[in-house]
Structures are given as structure tokens and as C-alpha cells.
Amino acid sequence: MNHKILYLSREDVKNVGLSMAETIEAVEQGFIEMGNGNVEMPPKPGIHPGLGEDNFIHAMPAYIPAMKSAGIKWVSGYPGNQQKGLPYIMGLLVLNDTETGIPLSIMDCAWITGMRTAAASAVSAKYLARKNSSTIGILACGFQGHTNLEAMSVLFPLKKVKAFDPSKENREKFAEYASKKLGLETEIVEEPKMAVTGSDIVVTSGPILKIPHETIKSGWIDEGTFISCVDFDSYFSRDALNEASKWTTDNIDQYNHYKDKVGYFQNCPKIYAELGELVTGKKVGRESDKEKNFAANLGLAMEDMAVAPLVFKKAVEKGVGIWLPM
Amino acid sequence: MNHKILYLSREDVKNVGLSMAETIEAVEQGFIEMGNGNVEMPPKPGIHPGLGEDNFIHAMPAYIPAMKSAGIKWVSGYPGNQQKGLPYIMGLLVLNDTETGIPLSIMDCAWITGMRTAAASAVSAKYLARKNSSTIGILACGFQGHTNLEAMSVLFPLKKVKAFDPSKENREKFAEYASKKLGLETEIVEEPKMAVTGSDIVVTSGPILKIPHETIKSGWIDEGTFISCVDFDSYFSRDALNEASKWTTDNIDQYNHYKDKVGYFQNCPKIYAELGELVTGKKVGRESDKEKNFAANLGLAMEDMAVAPLVFKKAVEKGVGIWLPM
Q1: What residues of A are labeled active site?
Q2: CA of B305: how far to CAs of A205, B13, B37, B263, in Å?
Q3: Among B161, B222, B209, B211, which Cα is nearest to B189's?
Q4: pLDDT at A52 over 90
């Protein structure tokens, strides 16, 4: 056995240089496969180590035959880590050869998780937002605020971003990113409402909470807006949510699990479609300029496995990473 | 983040030098924790890539609080690999820090899988075989034949081994191992029956088959014998199985899954006990010198996670492996 496995650290994965446009394309392709019933994605089991009540490590396996992708993400979330100067989310992804099962690559999963989550928002927006959306509101300007803005800027003719974040440091870093890196007119707003009203696209990307803070009230969202709830239903009053014309998700089974077993998404609208149904045309996306459409995507193993082979391929081409003996 | 992850190749894991005695002790400790309800081990999901109908890659997560062990084994089985000169079973194990979730080590899982499977046989034998067992029959002399013999030799005053294998190469390699390495009187037998009748302990360690070959017939097994069916029920006629005084397994839930969903263990005896119940004294083990006792252990994520921290600790102490940037 002279087989070698390519190890990619967090920096390596980033340095491979997969673009957001490529990521969005791969994730959309994954959703097409899923919409056509051609993805194997078993329920994700988890363990809950340590003393922190909300600690988890989840196993997220998936197989996408058409993309020759099979593997698993093994990802932990420890809320207490931030106090220790460690990331909340950490983990590894193993990519396997579909023909032999042999591990091809082990890679840090943080970058892929961030990118594919934003890419899924953008794929939802492609089918649910107005094509000419030019103003975007971002509520909470952390990592997902950045990547979601980038992803939307790939698919829409964005001109202006209105950004809200309670942390001065976060919003200043974000403003610099949005203006300098993406060339957008950037307004830091003092009130959450100012990021919502008047926006064509809204992304809520704060912490995911079991008891929603319900900051966004009924009447704030304009007609024609698309909202990506990256932080589930945390940001919305129930009245605001029930203004939804179309309330969608990336996976109904997982959504129902979160709703019925974990306790998220209480009193939310009825699911109109899964993203796989939208991208395959099995359900129609936006039908008028007046609809208020929502995506509450949960993050799927399929999305990771749609992106991982591209990272691996580019890493091999560019000579990034460490080859390990099996 | 200056954290480093220790990578251990297949050779590294072996070279760490964890003994079979240490492995058995760790696996028994794991079963005590499990028997006391202190192990988190969710169902193992899998994907089934490629064209081979029986290909699988299984996710096996477990958390053993008392052993400060949390992690996952991601292990593939591709029956067609042998024709390609590749192992049937391949995979990786990730060990996580229970306090932060951070990955501590990534290691090849082949050695641990082999060792812990044999160790579980031995733990079963400790409670179900006669203490003075001195003659052992091994049917099929592959990797599991070797490790099971070694494990039994740790716990029992073995003097003689009778070995059957259709492959001349296998049985000659095995005979050399048994006589030279373990110092046992070694007899290669031409007929399966000769390895069964007259043995205090019997291990069947052939391929696991959905349609059992049922080689071992009623009347072959002596009174007082303990049998470890490493290859499930493949080797036994139903009549021979139903001579069992005590038919046991390592995990009833998983056993029932294999029986009811996958199709193994049809018309087998009723389960008397889980191994965790035996090691904690919740169910009594052997009660007379006449019992014919069986263990049909399936292999649990808990067993891997009981052993992995010891491998990691020894590797750190001995400076084995490659430290990877996270």
C-alpha cells in the first residue's frame, strides 16, 4: 500500500483559491442531483461530549454519484470555546475515492463550511430573489455576513449594502471588506430596521438561538424582498415570518427534525419547497415582484461534498498540502 | 490557532506498540461503561458508493466520558478491492478532545479494528469460556484468526491450536505465527470438524456472508465449549447454533438491526445477554462446565474509542507520527 492521502490545513484550503462563483456552481449542481433523488445523505448522528450542554460533534456523510464525491464532515460546535480563544466550530472533512473507498484527502472543514453555506443562500436567492436586486441588508457581520455578501455579489448587480452589528469591531471590519474588496456603497446602520426596510435582499447571520430574539418585526420587510435566514428563525417575530409568500429550506426532513425534535422553527410558515425542487423546476420560484420569499437553509453534508472534490483537485494541481502515507 | 493534530499511518499505529493485554483491558473497561449506560453511541449511518452492490462507508461515532474519549471511525468496505490489490477494509479514525472538540489525532483504523475485534472476543470468553480452556480451534486463518488467537492466549492457559483454512498460504503463515510467536502446539487440520470437536474455545473468522455456508454441523461442538463467531452466523448450521446454552452479542440494538433490516442471524437463538451486562454482572456468565456458550459480537464504535486514546498517548510519548497544522 503506497497510497498517499493529501492533508489540507485551514490555511491550505483557503490558499487553494476556489472562488465563490465556482462554489456556488458546485452547490447548485449538488442541489440538482438532490432534487432528482440522486444523492445519498443519511441522517447525521452526533455525540455530545464534555460538560457544556450544547456541545456537539456531528457526523455528516454524503455521496453524490454524478460528482464522484463521497465522504464525511466531522464537525464540532462548543459554545464555551470562544471564552477559551478557540473557534466555536471546528472539524475535518474526509474525501473518499468512490471506486475503492480509499481516503483521498483529509481537510479542515471551516472554510468549506463557510463558503458552501453562503453559496446555498445564493442558490436560494437565484430562484427566490428579484433578478435586479441591488440593495442588500446584512444583520450580524461575522464570517457568514462576509461570505453571504460575497455570494450574493456574484449573482446580483449589488450596489449598496446596509450592515448592522452590535459589535463596533465587526461592523468596521465588514465595512472595509464590503467597500474595498467588493466595491459596494456601504452604510453602517444603527438600527436593525434600517438594514431590513428598503433592502432587496436581507441576510440574517447572527447566532442560532433556540429562543429567537425576534428583532425583526412585522411591517419592516418590503414587498419583493428575499430573505436568507442563515441563523434559522432567530431574528424574526412570528408576525414578520408569517408575511412570507414562500418559506423554503434546503432539506425538509432535516427541517422537520430541527422543528419537532430540537425545538427550532416553532410557529413558522409551512414549507413551500426544498431548494432541490426549485433548482430542478419541480416547484416554481419567484412568481411576482411583490413576493416576500424566505430561505431557511440548514446546511447539508451534500453541500460539503459538492465542494470538497474541487478543493482537492485544485490543491493537487497547485501542489498545496502535505501528502501523508496511509 | 497553533493547534497541531497528530497523524498516525497504518505503520505508525502498529509501531506504537500497544499490547493485546492493554487492548483487552481498555475494551473491557469500555464494556463496563456501556453496561452502566455511560456511553453515547448513536446508530452508525453509511453511504454506499460506486458500482459494487455491497460497498459501504460507515460512520461510527462514540463518546465514553469516563475514558475521556470522543471520536469517529470512518471505515469503508469494498468487496471488489481485493481484485485490485487493495484491502477490503480501509479507513480513518479521528480522536477529539472532549473538552473543546478539537481534533487531537487522525489515525489509520485498520490495526485498531483488528485488535479491538479480537479483544472483544476475549472479553466475551472471559465471562463465557471455561477458565482452564487450553485447546483452541481457529477456522479461517486470516488477520482475525491471528489476532483472536493472540487475544485468547492473553487470558487463557492455551497449549494447543487446531487451525483450518482452505488456503495453504494462510494456514502455513498462521502455523508459523502460532508456534513461533505464541509458542503453541499447532496442528493444521484438513477438515473443519477437526478444529471444532475437542476444542475448549472455537473462533470462526471467515468472511461474513448473508447466506451462511453452515459448515459446522450439529453434534460437532463439545459440551463446555465457548465459540466466538467473528464472522457472525456464517459458519453454523441452524441446528448447531441451537445447541447454544447462552447466545450473546456486544449490542442488542445493532444485532436486531442486522437481523431485521440487513438479513443476518436468521433463525438464531434468542439473545441471552449483551456483553456490557456480563462484564457488569447484570447477567451471569458461564454457570457450568457443560454449557456451550456463544458470542456473536458485531464490532462497536465504543470499542474503537476505548482503544484510540491509548494509541494516541503512546504515540505522543514515543514521538511516533506526523504533527499537522490545523
Answers
A1: 73
A2: 36, 14, 16, 27
A3: B161
A4: no
Beta strands A89-96; A103-108: pairing state: antiparallel
Written as one letter, the residue type at A100 is T
Q: What is the per-residue pLDDT across A54-87, written as a single tens digit (0 to 9) for each? A: 899 999 999 999 999 999 999 999 988 989 999 8
- Tell me how close the Cα of B116 comes to any Cα of chain A, in angstroms: 20
User: B186 CA to chain A: closest CA distance, Å?
Assistant: 31
Its sign, for the CA torsion B77, B80, B82, B86, is: negative
Q: How far apart are CA B271 and CA A147, in angstroms?
A: 53
B73 tagged catalytic: yes
Distance from CA of A189 to the nearest CA of B (A): 32
Mean pLDDT across chain B, nearest whole number? 96
Contact A47 B40 (CB under 8 A): yes
Q: Which residues from A are below 8 Å from B41, CB to CB?
A: 47
- Indicate the SS3 state at residue B224: coil
Q: Answer yes or no: do A46 and B61 touch at CB < 8 A.
A: yes
Interface predicted TM-score of the whole assembly (ipTM), two decimals: 0.93
Single pTM value for the model:
0.94
Read off the C-alpha cell for B72: 469517529
Amino acid, res. A273 = A
Q: Treating both helix axes as pointing N-terminal to C-terminal, what angle do A143-155 and A110-128 enclose, rounded to 10 degrees?
A: 40
Domains of chain A, first to last: 4-112+302-325 (3.30.1780.10), 130-299 (3.40.50.720)
Contact residues on chain A for B48, CB-CB shorter than 8 A: 40, 63
Q: Is the pLDDT of residue A176 over 70?
A: yes
* Owner of C-alpha cell 422543528: A259
Spatial separation of the C-alpha atoms in residues B301 and A319, rounded to whole Å: 35
Which pLDDT tens digit goes with each residue over A81-117? 989 999 888 999 999 999 999 999 999 999 999 999 9
CB contact under 8 A, A45 and B44: yes
B254-293 pLDDT, tens digit per residue, is 999 999 988 999 999 999 999 999 999 999 999 999 999 9
Q: A59: which strand partners?
A: A74
Helix A301-318, helix A110-128: angle, nearest 10: 120
